[in-house]
Specification:
Structural class: mainly alpha
Shape: globular
Number of strands: 2
Order of helices and strands: HHHHEEHHHHHHHHHH
Distance between the termini: 17 Å
Helix content: over 70%
Number of helices: 14
Bound molecules: geranylgeranyl diphosphate
Mean pLDDT: 95
Largest sheet: 2 strands, antiparallel
Strand content: under 5%
Radius of gyration: 18 Å
Length: 298
């Protein structure tokens, strides 16, 4: 209950900030059509789960949650860009996202590529902005951490491995270890970093930082397994995106079977909860968030 309220609150705060930032982007001279496409991508729904994690992990690290909104908004820009590019014909070729036509369908491919590029760039501009944090060293850590999480050794690299598997059939044979690595990079690195960014904003000590990193890593893994199971069992209307897209894809459910994948999901959930032990009841909302990852239907 607390979780759903806090998720809603952080979503509202982040959406208001994104709206304001995109107004500034337009005022700085960005073309109208590009700004419209960026708005379509980043303000058109979504659970705002990564934003929630930044804000709650900052709060548990001792920061005023309001101080984390700018960083949370930057994370949502990177996430939105990844979805826009993932949906392109050259990648997943999807027509439905967040219950609406994907960006390249609603606009066109070149606009979708550019809007994704612009959202990614904007995220770094936002993190470097003094409004993100008063301490330039904290801003530099946030920028460096996001670059690592989103880049070639993180989300982009994971997407590369995913496409190599799907389009080139590599590696042969596919192994569970390879899928775990791919998923930890593609989906896990941004979720884990959302938690770590909260710790950076709150200037948390290494013990807290490590605990939140571990929590993020485990729920990131769980999030992807749940996504794979939802692709097999969910419906497009509830999900707001196409389902049964994973046929022939490298997923844990396809390699080890649905039931084993579900057990693996529950194991990640247990480990995520375990990582929160040091926080006592202060982490109850993060425990609920882990439950949500396992039980979500969209
Ligand atoms: C194109 C560089 C590049 C990366 C793409 C994120 C990603 C990597 C691909 C998306 C494919 C996918 C569906 C992955 C499963 C996990 C995931 C990221 C689901 C979407 O995230 P949600 O459920 O989306 O948080 P909302 O719409 O709620 O924000």
């Amino acid at each position: 209950m607390v979780f759903s309220q806090r998720l809603k609150q952080s979503a509202a705060a982040v959406e208001a900030r994104l709206d304001a930032v995109l107004t500034q982007v337009a005022a700085a001279g960005a073309p109208d059509r590009l700004v419209e496409a960026m708005r379509y991508a980043v303000l058109g729904g979504g659970k705002r789960f990564r934003a929630f994690l930044v804000i709650e992990c900052a709060a548990i690290s001792g920061s005023d949650p309001n101080h984390a909104v700018h960083t949370a908004a930057a994370l949502e820009c990177v996430h939105a860009y990844s979805l826009v590019h993932d949906d392109l014909p050259a990648m997943d070729n999807d027509a439905l996202r967040r219950g609406k036509p994907t960006l390249h369908v609603a606009f066109d491919e070149w606009t979708a590529i550019l809007a994704g590029d612009a959202l990614l760039t904007l995220a770094f501009q936002m993190l470097a902005d003094p409004g993100t944090h008063g301490d330039p060293a904290v801003r530099a850590q946030l920028v460096a951490g996001l670059a690592l999480a989103a880049g070639a050794a993180g989300m982009v690299g994971g997407q590369g491995l995913d496409l190599e598997a799907e389009k080139l059939g590599l590696p042969k044979p596919m192994t569970i270890g390879h899928i775990e690595r791919l998923q930890a990079m593609k989906t896990g690195s941004l979720i884990r970093y959302s938690c770590e960014a909260g710790a950076i904003i709150g200037a948390a000590d290494e013990e807290v930082r490590q605990a939140l990193r571990t929590y993020g890593e485990k729920i990131g893994r769980a999030f992807q397994i749940a996504d794979d199971l939802l692709d097999l069992e969910g419906d497009a209307q509830t999900m707001g995106k196409s389902v049964r897209k994973d046929a022939g894809k490298a997923t844990l459910a396809s390699l080890m079977g649905r039931e084993a994948a579900r057990q693996h999901l529950l194991h990640q959930h247990t480990e995520a909860i375990g990582a929160l032990e040091m926080f006592g009841t202060r982490a109850d909302v993060l425990r609920e968030a882990a439950d949500f990852v396992v039980t979500r239907r969209s």
